Amino acid sequence: MNKTHLLSLLAISVLLGSCEPDEELSEYDCEEWTTACADSSIVVDPLKSNRKVLIIGIDGFRADAMQDTITPFLFSLAQSPNTYYTNQNHVQSLTFSGPNWSSLCTGVDFCKHMVTTNGFGDNHLVEYPHFFQYIEQANSSKNTVSVVNWTPINTHLSSPFADYSPTESITDHDVFLITNNLLLQGVPLNPDILFLQFDELDGAGHSYGFHPNVPEYRATLNTLDAYIDSIYSIIEAKRSNGEEWLFCVISDHGGDGKGHSGKYDNEHVKHTIMFMNAPLESFKHWHTSSQTDLAPTVLDYLGIESAEFNCKTDGISVLQ
Ligand SMILES: [Zn+2]
């Protein structure tokens, strides 16, 4: 491991799509990491090789908006004995979309993947790839799919590895409709691993305020809750037919006032929700998750043991 100290950098860049009303301000102090991981072996547990995963990402989810009157479905999901839930999931200290979606997808902190803006410039995503890379390496016949409103996720993170990751601009409702086509019709393919991202809650927060009492923020979150309820019903039907699915709901950051960038000292920004749901699984309920825990949890559920990923990740699986 070779560490070279970098000067604290100040970067101001033009925002893309998500978070437009913010001026993005990246101020960070990183050690430069070169992780030497010589062992590239990968092993798959045959008992888990048919398992599937659905991940639903919601941009800008302030955790105290997770209430029975706003998100009745998620509120009940959080109570389920088959669910790991926290409202204290720890976000990256760069509290905007690029670094956080990158840490969720790669399982490493931003000082490794070096996505420090929403423009994704000068990143180290080749060394620290999306977890799709390890799934495809373990079994290239698995269908990895990513459908997102905020397209930089697919452009920069998913596309090099995914079997289907459209990069045209779409709405949250489009994400929902495409998800129905994928899960119910297998169109354009049957996903084994499906990653979704909804972006309009973040837009409502920037326009009207990130707060459970702001009507527009509540209404947008309530609509998303209905989408998620509907998608969960599809997964439950598949589970009834013998399929094994991990169902995850995550977010990149919270929000306060009309923003979130540069607010790592604000508890409504630095903590957000994380849900992991699977019947017959035990969870580390004592553990408070971080963004880097999603990728190791997904690979653990799928029974994929990658020496390289284990060497690089900063997260842990929340499965017992
Ligand atoms: Zn934003």
Describe the structure.
- This protein is of the alpha/beta class.
- The chain has one domain: Alkaline Phosphatase, subunit A.
- Helices cover 32% and strands 20% of the residues.
- It has helices spanning 72-79, 97-106, 110-113, 132-138, 152-158, 172-185, 200-208, 215-240, 267-270, 294-301, 307-312; strands at 2-5, 9-13, 24-28, 31-34, 42-44, 52-58, 83-90, 144-148, 193-198, 245-251, 271-277, 304-306.
- The strands form four sheets. It has a six-stranded mixed β-sheet, with helices on both faces. It has a two-stranded antiparallel ribbon with strand order 1-4. Strands 2-3 form a two-stranded antiparallel ribbon.
- Helix 2 (97-106) packs parallel to helix 5, helix 6 (172-185) packs parallel to helix 8 and helix 7 (200-208) packs antiparallel against helix 8 (215-240).
- The model is unreliable at 1-17 and 19-23 (pLDDT under 50).
- Bound molecules: zinc ion (ZN).
